[in-house]
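Lab notebook, design round three. We kept the backbone fixed and only want residue identities now. Task for the bench partner: fill in a sequence for the structure below.
Input structure tokens:
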């Protein structure tokens, strides 16, 4: 990236990132602890998706199988679906929820107690990536899986 480009767009990019970090696209049915978890923790697993898809690769299924086992010793597991901003908001919210549910189903089918699991959607990308501003939205088509220990609740 050229220095001229950075100087010209850096203030705008910084403002967009700050605004998007403070303004969730949609809270869905997520609890406050799940809504705030990405501000204090990194996801244990992130599953990326193709455009308008809920298909999960074999590699990601293996990661989720391990996460189901690891999550059994946690206080809570938050599964948060997101979509990029292509298409309309209602479609993106539904797509994000389907993605979260697909991931949650794999976690459950691999032994994670449903009582520990909370799945929901933020719809269109909550933490808009800098790459989106530059034309790539792949990072925003994802589901993040967080473990919240009893001490973090």
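Proposed sequence:
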């Amino acid at each position: 990236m050229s220095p001229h480009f950075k100087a010209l767009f850096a203030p705008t990019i910084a403002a967009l990132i700050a605004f998007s970090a403070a303004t969730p696209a949609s809270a869905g049915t997520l609890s406050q602890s799940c809504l705030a978890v990405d501000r204090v923790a990194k996801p244990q697993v992130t599953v990326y998706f193709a455009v308008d898809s809920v298909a999960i690769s074999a590699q990601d299924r293996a990661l989720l199988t391990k996460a189901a086992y690891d999550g059994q010793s946690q206080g809570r597991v938050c599964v948060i679906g997101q979509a990029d901003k292509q298409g309309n908001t209602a479609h993106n919210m539904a797509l994000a929820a389907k993605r979260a549910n697909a991931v949650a189903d794999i976690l459950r089918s691999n032994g994670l107690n449903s009582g520990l699991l909370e799945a929901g959607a933020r719809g269109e990308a909550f933490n808009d990536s800098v790459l989106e501003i530059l034309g790539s939205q792949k990072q925003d088509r994802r589901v993040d899986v967080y473990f919240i220990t009893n001490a973090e609740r």
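Keep this in mind before ordering anything: DSSP finds five helices and four strands in the chain.
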